[in-house]
Design a protein that fits this description.
11-stranded antiparallel beta sheet; 11 strands; 35% strand; 288 residues
Length: 288
């Protein structure tokens, strides 16, 4: 990162801070495993705590009328985390661009590798460069890499191809808005998982047996309370790194605008299932 004052590259200390975080009850499915969206909430908590440690707690951003919003987030799930697990969580600043875009990599040790691109917004809500003091507080870590690369998920070779997912229309709750008045970014992963869960249930399959494998969300707009959000998309069977079949859901969240709709976010999730026959069974059901 180049600072405005010195034009020199500044790095964080060599040893990143590690936080201990426990999986709470409300983060778990009926199988006592953490939901993907709730693992993203742990990632967010680690980022907020790290910013506070650097002298930038939420109340400081709020007083200045500025903050960061997520532009894109990606994660690879290494295994499922269970209720009550005490996890080591580390987070590092991996990149800066034009004092506007910050990439942060976060690892929930042995469970999830995540990266998120954050955009700094000014008091007017538009992207804008952070102050020199802010930029200096978030130096790039010397061991920063390119973030977790999502693996290729090749098709299974099934003749089932791709099937349309049932659409899901709803309004975000007023009581779940974040401090900027938007739907908080982990909620979008919840939405994608709910679309899949509803499709599985409608096909007579078990939604609780779903296992998270990978997530990718790219944000276009912030959904707000009372928006009417509709999620549509499709699903296909893929081969997972473990050698079993899984499901790749490619979804789009849209909301009405005048006499048309506008894109809120592109949602992509890859999921396995405890029963390896479920992916193909779902596709056959969706094809009718």
């Amino acid at each position: 990162m180049q600072t405005p004052e010195t034009n020199a590259t500044v790095h964080a200390p060599a040893a990143p801070g590690v936080r201990r975080m426990r999986i709470p009850r409300h983060a778990c499915t009926p199988r006592d495993t953490a939901r993907a969206g709730d693992l993203w909430r742990i990632v967010q908590d680690a980022a907020v705590d790290d910013a506070a440690d650097r002298g930038w707690p939420p109340e400081r951003f709020r007083a200045m009328g500025t903050g960061f919003v997520v532009r894109e987030m990606r994660a690879i799930h290494l295994r499922e985390a269970r209720y009550g697990e005490d996890l080591a969580v580390s987070t590092q600043i991996a990149d800066h661009r034009r004092a506007v875009l910050m990439r942060r990599d976060t690892q929930i040790a042995g469970v999830m590798n995540a990266t998120a691109d954050w955009v700094h917004i000014g008091p007017d809500g538009a992207p804008g460069g952070g102050s020199p003091e802010l930029i200096a507080a978030f130096p790039i870590h010397p061991d920063a890499g390119s973030g977790p690369a999502l693996p290729e998920f090749p098709p299974t070779g099934s003749a089932l191809g791709t099937a349309a997912m049932p659409s899901f229309t709803f309004s975000p709750w007023w009581t779940e808005m974040d401090p900027l008045g938007h739907t908080n970014h982990p909620r979008y992963v919840d939405w994608a998982d709910e679309v899949l869960a509803r499709a599985l249930h409608a096909a007579g399959l078990d939604p609780v047996g779903v296992v998270p494998v990978a997530d990718r969300v790219r944000f276009r707009l912030g959904a707000r309370a009372s928006d009417t959000v509709t999620i549509t998309g499709d699903v296909r069977t893929v081969m997972l790194p473990c050698g079993q079949p899984g499901l790749l859901c490619t979804l789009r969240a849209r909301r009405p605008r005048l006499d048309a709709t506008e894109l809120v976010a592109d949602l992509g999730i890859v999921r396995g299932h405890l029963d390896p026959t479920v992916p193909a069974t779902l596709l056959r059901a969706l094809h009718g």
